[in-house]
Amino acid sequence: xxxxSSVGVxxxxxxxxxxxxxxxxxNPFYRLVEHIFVGASAGIAIVTGxxxxxxxxxxxxxxxxxLLIIPILLGVLLYARYVPQYSYLNRLPLSLMMxxxxxxxxxxxxxxxxxxxxxxxxxxxxxxxxxxxxxxTLLSLSYFFLTYKLEGGAGWAPKLGRYFMxxxxxxxxxNTVMGRVSAxxxxxQFIFLDWLGM
Amino acid sequence: xxxxxxxQNIDKRVFYLLMALAIAIPTVSPIGLAVDVTPAVQRTFDFxxxxxxxxxxxxxxxxxxxxxxxxxxxxxxxxxxxxxxxxKVVAIASFPAGAMFxxxxxxxxxxxxxxxxxxxxxxxxxxxxxxxxxxxxxxxxAIYSKDWRGNDTASLPIMKEVKSMKDFSMAMTLNxxxxxxxxxxxxxxxAVMAHNVPLIMGVTGVLAASNETYVQSGQCKGILxxxxxAAEYEKLVxxxxxxxxxxxxxxxxxxxxxxxVILGNAAMFLSQKAKPASKGxxx
Amino acid sequence: xxxxxxxxxxxxxxxxxxxxxxxxFQITPIGTLADHILKWRSVIAVFALGLxxxxxxxxxxxxxxxxxxxxxxxxxxLTFAITIVxxxxxxxxxxxxxxxxxxxxxxxxxxxxxxxxxxxxxxxYRAFRAKNAEAAILLITGCIVMLGRVPIGAKILPFTAPATxxxxxxxxxxxxRGVMIxxxxxxxxxxxxxxxxxxxxxxxxx
Amino acid sequence: xxxxxxxxxxxxVTLIVVTGLMGLYMxxxxxxxxxxxxxxxxxxxxxxxxxxxxxxxxxxxxxxxxGGLVAATFAGLEVLGYVARLTAQYDVRLVVTVxxxxxxxxxxxxxxQAYLEAGKPEAYRPEDCRFISTDQWAYASGVIGVLYRERxxxxxxxxxxxxxxxxxxxxxxxxxAIQIAGTTNAYQIPFFVVACDYVILGEEMFAAGAHFxxxxxxxxxxxxxxxxxxACLAIMVIGAVMTTAGSDVLKTLMSK
Lengths: 198, 283, 206, 256
Description:
The structure holds four protein chains of four kinds.
Chain A: H1 7-20, H2 28-62, H3 69-77, H4 91-121, H5 128-142, H6 156-195
Helix pairs in contact in A: 1-2, 1-6, 5-6
Chain C: H1 2-24, H2 28-66, H3 71-89, H4 95-127, H5 133-148, H6 151-156, H7 160-195
Helix pairs in contact in C: 1-2, 2-3, 5-7
Chain D: H1 9-30, H2 41-56, E1 60-65, H3 71-90, E2 94-98, H4 101-117, E3 129-131, H5 136-149, E4 154-160, H6 165-174, E5 178-183, H7 189-195, E6 198-201, H8 208-213, H9 216-244, H10 249-254
Parallel strand pairs in D: 1-2, 1-4, 2-3, 4-5, 5-6
């Protein structure tokens, strides 16, 4: 054993042990590590945010891009919520963020997810595998009929669709284990090799 | 609660402890659980074996933190083989972190009596992706006036020997994809197509399939994919290392989970048989 | 009334429509406006971080007031303040700031991520019980893929390696796609309801 | 040069048809078309979950996930509106955790508005709507802390989730909370399925408004969504038949 003399390695190792301690139960050690971590990461978010503001809004604004005064004013209006008689003003910036967010969601949904997935399903139905992919897609989509009740002859379709979805979920689950275990191996190597020097 | 019910509701902490052991034991001492060498890895190993002793290799460390779990073990396994053959090594990196990984991996060469600056060098990070790699291929010292440790490259004996990419008997890229750094495709163009230097690749697991085409076309002499390939290579060079550790831990962790699932189901079925009216375990 | 309801709806509609139109048409003024709107959105989001900061300070000072010995909240506020002060006065490349980032943020984050290796096992143990057809299917594909992914699994049950490839490239596809296509239709519907002002509640309207 | 962006023409047509259909059905529903929604178990369980918390005298935890203002988050916030009104009515404490700042800005308003609508604006406690951190793992660790220390009776997670999904769900299970979760991320649904009591699968989560209030316009848009799904099924069948017969016409058309 050749224990590390680096302060950084010690801090990292203690933090990792604190996090793992929650697997036994909630305890003061975990609680302290959690609070320090949340404080530091939220601080980092604020620092990054201020840098973004400087580079994307303040510098261009003082450099003559006057239009940027609009989002700055709107941004300030977010704080109107703390003043009861003007709190409704904070809806203005929120509506811009929501509207723009909705626009982005809408265009992305059509392009990559609907049209792309539909064309990918138009395959040559000459093998059993192709049929499984094709029927699996149709049946699982049929599960999502929310206002029509598929009954009688068609009643089995959403049910089979759920079976296909469960098969996919099981597969995705099994396929993810390796990546998660890799992450733990990385931490264990850090603790045993970098920190304890075994 | 009888035994069968207990087996359906084992305390989570028992599992956590076993899982920690499954990962910790191989980390501290590799077991070398059954890993069969696949043809792709064997081909890569055989290709490197055919290189002339005392030749030169350039290795690109084209990956970022997070992927070193897969790629550092590959790099180390290959370096053992190169070290045994006294092949000189020049390391370059298209990511800043890649240069740091290179430094960690190259330390292996000291075991084989290598001398820094004479037998191997870590040139460090270059920006600009393919364009810079192309310039490097024409004249390495034009891109690097100093190495990663801050030495003047002009003063290093190894750099006097490499005037262009053609002076290398092999190129290798350890690659985690085309985003941000130099991708495998760029290496094929700059090493193989422009200078006819044989290329091998080490990639993360997910990139294996997309790079298979280069092997089929003969533009890539061998490919290592993921931690598993590293474990196989370690078996070939007979140096069990992080790849074996990783695969041992992976195997044990996966088996442990499956064993628990089987245990839970077996207990459930046996207890249902014993009392047909009873319900199963927790949802 | 006007500023409370109408203006927010108009802003949401215009922002949404402009962003969509700019994507499908090559009309320079609209394209420029869309770029502006998206940039504005990210500037406003920075101000939203300030709201988050206020919330953190309020919650934890209250905790300390209620219980002066609550040194967890004190530790959080202290690291929060130190990180901000160091980041703003000494810069993001300074040694103390990179220490916080490299030795507190990154390793603790990796440790939290790696908890998943433990949780994934207990979740499987609990849920992979063949109580009904759906659970059985989940259990079977899950276990086959788990075994097929590691060399030792293929050694014990040789069929798992090819079965895993088949599950991932054939059986898995339909279920994933059904979820994605339906989800995307839902995305469009909810976005449309926001753009036409039917989900005012979402931004605090009545 | 065309004013249409190349490669996106068919997408545009799709969008126009889909939104047109939705607009039409929202209008038809408002003018009397009767639409009924099929039961969604996960939504029905929300009443049960809040009732359980009321009985036990413990809080409910809700999170709209790790996402910024994206479609799945919108659905989460919609559900939050109902959850918050219900908890306000039953005098159950509701703790909400948020990761992204822009989402937090909206969440706070949704919660405040819900308490107002329930007639109990004074019951809203600003410190129970918590911004944790924009960092994915800090958010996860903070939520673990809330679930453990607030001893929540019910844990509702609806919105955009990434790899942290299972961390939250396992922590919730460990404290014995009844768990209801929903996300559209096909890679994370499996983890909710294994760890939670009720899962709202993908698109189902966009039906919250229709489920909880029988809002006519919302029901109309759901009917339009179903028609779009039917059209998708038809297009896939036709396209596959054509491809099998050796014609790529439809595929080519759709890539315009």
